[in-house]
Amino acid sequence: MLPTRAEAERLLAEAESCNPGPWGDHSRVVAHCAEKIADACDGLDAEKAYVLGLLHDIGRKFGARHLGHVSDGYTYMMSLGYDEAARICLTHSFHNASTKGYIGNFDTSEEELELIRAALAKAVLDDYDRLIQLCDSLSGSEGVLDIEERMSDVKRRYGSYPQEKWDSNIRIKEYFEGKTGKNIYDIVEKGTYKP
Questions:
Q1: 3-state class of 71 per DSSP?
Q2: Do 95 and 131 form a contact (C-beta atoms < 8 A)?
Q3: In contact, 164 and 96? CB cutoff 8 Å
Q4: Could you report the per-residue pLDDT of 121-135, keeping only the tens digit for each?
Q5: CA-CA distance, 184 to 37, in Å (whole number)?
Q6: Distance separating alpha carbons of residues 7 and 178, to the nearest angstrom
Q7: Which residues of 142-170 are buried (b: 16+ CB within 10 A; e: fewer)?
Q8: Contact at 8 Å (CB) between 188 and 50?
């Protein structure tokens, strides 16, 4: 189940009031990109993609956490009955459905880490999971970025970026370019879209 677009926007605004920061506009850019790409793909719902993109980082509502934002978002969305959004809160950080290769601090309790691992083990990734992973890799807080520039920025900030995840992001970008028959940057209005 998913909230409406208006409800998702309300949830994000409320979350930003609890923990202000650039993550809110980053989420808006992810939502924009997801909506545009889904609209250009057969079989994907642009409205659903927008809502999933908007809520992928909603766990940041609860403070500045790394891996913790994943469990916080998952738990929060499940508590509201939004299981599809909860799954995206979880899967957007794990291209291989495993915590191996996670970029950032493991700042979770053992219980939170076990929750993440158990939920990932049950998750079957689909095109919405891959779409939000791609859009997360294209989106800054000020607009759409080149995917390699974004990954390089993450590498600078965290000290590393696993080659497997880098390669996976490039493959996902090529996958959606194949589905749409268009350049992703043209679809998402790189260079002109601002949140």
A1: helix
A2: no
A3: yes
A4: 999 999 999 999 999
A5: 7
A6: 32
A7: ebbbebeebbeebeeeeeebeeebbebbe
A8: no
